[in-house]
Each structure stands twice: as structure tokens, then as C-alpha cells.
Specification:
Elements: H1 2-15, E1 36-38, H2 50-63, H3 67-70, E2 78-81, H4 86-98, E3 107-113, E4 122-124, E5 129-132, E6 135-138, H5 141-147, E7 153-155, H6 158-162, H7 164-167, H8 170-176, E8 181-187, H9 192-203, E9 210-215, H10 232-250, H11 255-259
Parallel strand pairs: 1-5, 2-9, 3-8, 3-9, 4-7
Antiparallel strand pairs: 4-8, 5-6
Helix pairs in contact: 1-9, 2-4
């Protein structure tokens, strides 16, 4: 359900991206007091050593073969990227992030589901910067202020202190788009109507320098997750079929088709 909500937001936000008139990331007139969110997972989900982390990410990127994706014309507007520890998900995430090489990326909106703090709606951080072992990245306060005008969004501090789904994306962004600002969003429980409204709100900050990242593992299969819809022997083929079915809707930005 959380993956569904994320994809609906992504599809609706991307669908209107070409018609948005706000084409720049501008600084707020009044600079707020600096407030930094420190990575809650550095040293566990990925290494806390700066040089080792950069080397690991660059290694994943160098091995990612994006030949087929590079043949597609146009700008990358959105990515779906996993949020497991890098030893499990880094190689997969690299395929998506590598497609951004050479593209002008000024802002990255990161949407990740809440795993530890139960709440309804979409959470935004009350902070100016996010810190990982690779350094600090600025949070786009102006974009956050725009989103706060919509009732689906609210400031929360608790969820960002413990959530891995947003943080896991940031070191990749720091390597592939080092000058970009970020808009971190943790998604709580939302119904389809709220997802659609949030997607429309996100359109107001999407311009030709913005990329949206939906942080999702899509499926957690097995005993650990109490999810056994089919036998283990059928799992690989079934999960590939599920992914293909989801992609058939996502590639044409069909939110209703994805929900079906």
C-alpha cells in the first residue's frame, strides 16, 4: 500500500511536469537559522567513512549498464529507487541514478515511506541541511514552504530522525548531482484521493531542473515479512511479472492503472 501511494504521487507529479512555469530554484529572501539533519543510518546501512562511501557508490555507477535507457530521448523526470542497505540495493539504485549523468539537476524531491513512525499525510523536515558522510546538502526551503500551503503536507521532526528510506538516496544524489538541493518527504498513511492531491501539489515545484525519486522496494517477499502469496519455487517468475505489470502503467503515467 505504501508503494502504491508513492507511485501514484510520482505518476501524477510527473504527468504535469512539462507545463510548469516555475523554472528556477531561488533562494528565500530571509535565510533561516541553520538546522541540520544528520544521517540516521550512516555506519549501518552504508559506511560512515567518506572516502569508502564515495568509492563504493562510484563503483556501482561504473558497473551499471544504462545503454538501453540512454537510447530514450528526453529528460529524466522521475526515478524509482530501492531503499535497502547498499550491499543489497546499491547496484540496482545505480542504474537509475546513472541515467541522470549529464542532465541539469537543480532539485531532487525524495519521497520515502515511513517505516517506524505511524502517521497520516506527508511529512516535511523543519531543517535547512541534511548531512551524510559525504557532507551537507541544502534542503530547498522555498519548495517546502510551497508544499506546506497544501493540507496534505505538514512539518514533522520525529520521522526524519529514524527513517532510512529517504536518507539512503542522498549519498547517490551527492555523487551524481553535487550541486542539487533536496526536498525530503516521508509518506505516511494516505488514501488514493490524498495521493492524487499530493501529486498535484508536487507539480507546483516541478520544473525543468527537478527530478522526483520514489524510494520503494516494491515487494518484500518471504517469512521475514509475512508475505507468501505464492510458493518460493514460483517467486522469481511471479515477482518479475508483477514488476512488468506495474511498469506497463507507470511508463505511461497511468495512476489509475497502477492502482488496478
Amino acid at each position: 500500500m505504501r508503494a502504491l501511494a508513492l507511485m501514484v504521487c510520482l505518476a501524477i507529479a510527473c504527468k504535469g511536469s512539462d507545463g510548469v512555469t516555475d523554472t528556477r530554484v531561488s533562494k528565500p529572501q530571509e535565510e533561516p537559522m541553520k538546522k541540520v539533519i544528520v544521517s540516521p543510518i550512516a555506519g549501518s546501512w552504508y559506511t560512515a567513512d567518506r572516502d569508502a562511501l564515495r568509492k563504493e557508490i562510484e563503483g556501482y555507477l561504473s558497473k551499471a549498464d544504462t545503454t538501453q535507457a540512454d537510447m530514450v530521448q528526453g529528460r529524466v523526470v522521475g526515478l524509482i529507487s530501492p531503499h535497502a542497505g547498499y550491499r543489497y540495493s546499491g547496484a540496482v539504485a545505480a542504474f537509475g541514478y546513472k541515467t541522470l549523468k549529464g542532465q541539469k539537476v537543480r532539485r531532487v524531491v525524495i519521497m520515502g515511506p515511513s517505516h517506524r513512525v505511524p502517521f497520516s499525510g506527508l511529512a516535511l523536515p523543519d531543517a535547512t541541511h541534511w548531512k551524510t558522510p559525504l557532507g551537507e546538502v541544502a534542503i530547498d526551503r522555498e519548495a517546502i514552504e510551497k508544499l506546506l500551503k497544501h493540507k496534505e503536507f505538514a512539518l514533522r521532526e520525529d520521522t526524519f530522525r529514524v527513517e532510512h528510506s529517504v536518507d539512503i538516496q542522498i549519498p547517490f544524489i551527492q555523487v551524481i548531482a553535487p550541486d542539487a538541493v533536496i526536498v525530503p518527504i516521508v509518506v505516511g498513511h494516505i488514501d488514493p484521493g490524498t495521493a492524487a492531491s499530493a501529486g498535484k501539489a508536487l507539480r507546483t515545484i516541478v520544473d525543468d531542473g527537478t527530478v522526483l525519486v520514489a524510494s520503494s522496494d516494491f515487494t518484500h517477499y518471504g517469512a521475514r515479512f509475512d508475505y507468501w502469496p505464492f510458493p518460493v519455487a514460483e517467486a522469481e517468475n511471479k515477482l518479475v511479472a508483477y514488476a512488468d505489470e506495474a511498469w506497463s502503467a507507470l511508463k505511461v503515467l497511468d495512476a489509475d492503472g497502477f492502482r488496478a
